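Z., the sequence and structure:
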Amino acid sequence: WLILILILIRVIPWFVSTKIRKRRNAKRFKAGEAWRSDRDLIYWLRGMNPAEFEEYIADLFSKLGYKTKVTGGSHDGGVDVIAEKDGIAHYIQCKKYFSKHEVGSPEVRNFYGAVADHLAKGKGYFITTNKFTLEAEQFAQDKPIELVDSHKLVNYIHLAEKAKNKQ
């Protein structure tokens, strides 16, 4: 009985926090749809804290048909979200930056180094609320990495909205 009680003490808070987080993310996603312009949506995304942004991206990919798991945190190994579709795992790095910071090639190189072993069939997504430097784009050009800047991210959000409306 003692073991069962100890397990329940660990499982119940995890289960409750997961449900609360999913409900909060659904509200955030809905709030993001209410923005009048793409520019407002980008500013709204930039206003999130990093953990909220990772959760939002996981929710976005869920709406696009992926099964997602947030792995972010200080020891995430360079991968914030794992998104699986058709049995193939894809790895996502999320960087929420304000308008002055561009993602450079060192950050993209680090991400590629972290996921290169795992990308046999899958793909890496490096997602930012800003933009990438030319060097970063050139580095990723021949790699199985898709660079998703703020404008491409807005396109993904619109795709998710369309997918949701078709259901």
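The chain has a mean pLDDT of 84. The CA atoms of residues 131 and 149 lie 5 Å apart.

Let me know what you think.
H.
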